[in-house]
Amino acid sequence: MNISGNTIFIPxxxxxxxxxxxxxxxxxxxxxxxxxxxxxLLDTIAAExxxxxxxxxxxxxxxxxxxxxxEVLAKHPxxxxxxxxxxxxxxxxxxxxxxxxxxxESIITTNVLGPIRLIAAFxxxxxxxPDATIMTVSSGLAFAPLKVTPSYNASKAAIHLLSESxxxxxxxxxxxxxxxxxxxxxxxxxxxxxxxxxxxPLDEFVAEVVALIDSQPDATExxxxxxxxxxxxEARGDYxxxxxxxxxxxxxxx
Length: 254
Known about the structure:
The protein is of the alpha/beta class. It has a single domain (about 5-250), classed as 3-Layer(aba) Sandwich (Rossmann fold), CATH 3.40.50. It has helices spanning about 15-25, 40-50, 60-75, 100-125, 150-170, 200-215, 230, 235, 240-250; strands spanning about 5-10, 30-35, 55, 80-85, 130-135, 175-180, 220. The two termini are about 25 Å apart.
């Protein structure tokens, strides 16, 4: 993915990593469209950041994804980058079904079906572009589990292997697949995470991500240094230590 000259749609980007990344990519010379459920919040963000376009979308709703895709492509026929940013994370207790089942179903709908439906809505358009990118968003927890968030961990592991798989399938097209793998970042993904000393400051994370995109336009995985402890534990042979350290240190890890 080139760092500039793109038209980029980022659903789930009215706060946190999504919004911060949208603003940095806009500053690098891209046309950026942010997506979210709340129209009043989208209007506020658009007023605060001239040039940033918006689209109403609920990534847990298949119909909303389909209608938003039509709207975005009608306004931006040169769109060539889709970032499947939207995701939710919840603490769960799997001892009894009433304490996890509804949460698990919601997380899988948003974090796994959401990206799948988004890609389905845009893939034919992206394939018709001379150079296009799908950026998926997994997590360091795709590679080492945080005990209190089983469904989130599983959803991000699914996104990792989905990214690996469709990269192989789309190798005969103009569409690149790049996977963004955040560590814990200071956002509101979980209560208390915005001020967690274990989480990476949001501005530092996004600055490093943009620098990596700039310096490694052909990368298949975007990994800040902080996530490599989780990402490569198994390859290094210290997976058990990684899992123990993760679960001892940070109850709000991403």
